[in-house]
Amino acid sequence: MEIKEVTNKKHLKEFVNLPLRLYKKNSFYASPLIKDMMEHLSDKNPFFKRAKSKFFIAYKNGKAAGRIASIVNYAHLEFHRDNVGFFGLFECINDKEVTNALFNKAKEFLLENNLKTMRGPMNLSTNEECGFLYEGFDTPSMIMIPYNPPYYNELAETYGMKKVKDLYCFIVDVPSELPSKIDRIARFAEKQGIKVRTVNLKNLKEELYVFMEVYNEAWKENWGFIPITKEEIDYMAEKLKPVAIPELVIVAEKNSEPVGFLGAIPDFNEILRKIKGRLTPFAIIKTLYYRRKIKSIRLLLFGVKKAFRHKGVESIMLKEAFKGAVKHSFEKCEFSWILEDNYDTINLTQIVGAKRYKTLRIYEKSIN
């Protein structure tokens, strides 16, 4: 067995393509578009202006058997000052020898950078996919929620990783009408001068600057928070514009100042599972056909500035987004991911009747 660092485009392509082989017979796995991942792991991604990473591939008997990224996130270190480094993009056969070699390689890079804890998986940070799926293997994961075999958790724990945080995913059928409590609280918010509006996709970049303002204030006390920059917002806008639906992206305002933001997107994993990461001419036809048949949405952006919490802002945004979900005939909505100790948001999911159906687990290990 040997471990090789990714040092060129050919190696990176092998790194990106590895999951397609590992999950070949798994109907629940949705591969991201290979072209998009190649770009995402290059210097075109503004994430790497505040971070550095090394990617490694493990080979057993001459065949690629696993991969891992080792990540030094300067934005995290500046904000938290905790000497934590990260691993991510982990995929592997069920082999402890291969796994331990990959984790050791990731650890070496973090130690070289004087870090004392290895945490993950982060793909590449808490602003993106993170965690190993720990519960909920019997259903496919929605867009930007990881799917992996159950044995990944055993491999991590065998290496000495311990749970540091669980992230929850809740699911609910889109109801014919919202609970009366939501409507009642939304009316209270309206009386306090809170107004909501949907975004203008033609100005999505500027609209997401509003999200950045809300996010960087509302989420700053959350575990693992990292501030978002304008460059990252510009990058995000480019990715979201083709998939966003205006009626599902809501801004709450008071006196024209943003106080809350809600963003839901269609579950494009329903399409990605069909095209297997390759946007061929036939896959494009498939995408156009199945796009109209997507039945689920994922609510992935949801926050209110601290001074406006418990004033009905959450309810008035949900009420507006519900109209959009009904208009576009979506049948299910996932609230994810939610920190296990974010009780306010968890309580809100319970009011609308959502059930927890998946858990993602983040691990860490002392490496000093």
Structure description:
By secondary structure, the protein is of the alpha+beta class. The chain is 36% helix and 29% strand. The protein is built from twelve helices and 15 strands. The strands form two sheets. Strands 1, 2, 3, 4, 5, 8, 9, 10, 11, 12, 13, 14 and 15 form a 13-stranded mixed β-sheet that branches. The chain has a two-stranded antiparallel sheet with strand order 6-7. β6 and β7 (129-130) form a beta hairpin. α7 (204-218) crosses α8 and α9 packs antiparallel against α10 (281-291). The longest helix has 17 residues, at 96-112. The chain is globular. The protein starts with a strand and ends with a strand.
Per DSSP, the total helix count is 12
Topology as a string of helices (H) and strands (E): EHHEEHEHEEEEHEHEHHEEHHEHEHE
The first-to-last residue Cα distance is: 26 Å
- Strand share of the residues? 25-35%
Class of secondary structure makeup: alpha+beta
| Mean pLDDT level | 94
Task: Sum this structure up briefly.
By secondary structure, this protein is an alpha+beta fold. The protein has helices at residues 9-22, 34-40, 74-80, 96-112, 151-158, 180-191, 204-218, 230-240, 269-275, 281-291, 313-327, 343-351, and strands spanning 2-5, 51-60, 63-73, 84-92, 117-120, 122-123, 129-130, 132-135, 162-173, 194-198, 249-254, 257-266, 296-304, 332-339, 355-366.
